[in-house]
Amino acid sequence: MGSPRIIMKLIVAGIHDEPGDVRVIELKHQRKPLLPTFEPGSHVDVHLPDGKVRQYSLCGDPEDLSRYTIAVKRESSGRGGSAWIYDQVTPGAELPVSAPRNHFPLKESGGPVLLLAGGIGITPILAMARVLCRQGKPFELHYFARSRSLAPLLRTLEESIGAKSLRLHFDDQVDTLQDIEGLLSTRPSGAQLYYCGPLGFMAAVARVSEHWPDGTVHFEAFQPPVQDDTAPEPFTIVLRNGTVVPVPADRSALSAIRAAGVLLMASCENGVCGTCECGYLEGQPIHRDAVLSNDARSHRFIPCVSRATGVLKLDL
Ligand code: FES
Fold first, then answer.
1. Is the CB of 224 within 6 Å of ligand 1?
2. For residue 268, what pLDDT band results from cuts at 50, 70 and 90?
3. Which residue range forms the structural domain that includes residue 280?
């Protein structure tokens, strides 16, 4: 997996627009003909001039390393990063981009693969479908969008994987929630589920797939699920060397740990990229991230958003 510390200065080699306020950006290296390899599900960090860092899935073909392709949806109510890229980035511009990292890998499995994408969540799923298609593995990709005219990358998808494995679900034609329930209420033998999309879609798929066994459901979120509105409580972190780090209610664990002198890398600071992940040894975390699997939650912690009750001993 690449390190977010490795920053490449890539040049915007092409831009085109897709439905749903989405702009597809192709990035190349000015001198090197090939970029670092990536697996389907990988993302890169894009560093913006104001210091913000945003993560974008690589939606191009992992076999074509002459370029990276990202798709940026303009979110006017977002945190500003995507709107800046959408509005300001032009062909020829230079963008600092990290090496690819993958928190959403395709697992080796003999069973069928079910890929579910909602809107712009098609980006990591498209790269997965390309690879599964090439490998001749059994899979179905279910693409959910408000309508055909608002579905980004649909033509690319149809050209890349063909109609055989692709199922479309548009809100203006069918009851998409009912479709999700129909798809996931029974798990085909040996099946693995991968999904990505906006908050409501993520919540619906998570709810309907609750009965799938641990280790068979994989997802990537753009933002953490909506939290209860309980006010954050102060808690205490203890480091491996015994240092006690108080975390006040108005401060993140990440910021408190860093203030105590621990060098901990971070990127999104929003609980979605996994860069700040660390282990915990004792205590009761309150997980608020959108990265860790249920299995991982028994021993891993995301300090940029998660908290704890009482004392949490970290493996740091
Ligand atoms: S910095 Fe991205 S999950 Fe913490």
1. no
2. confident
3. 235-314
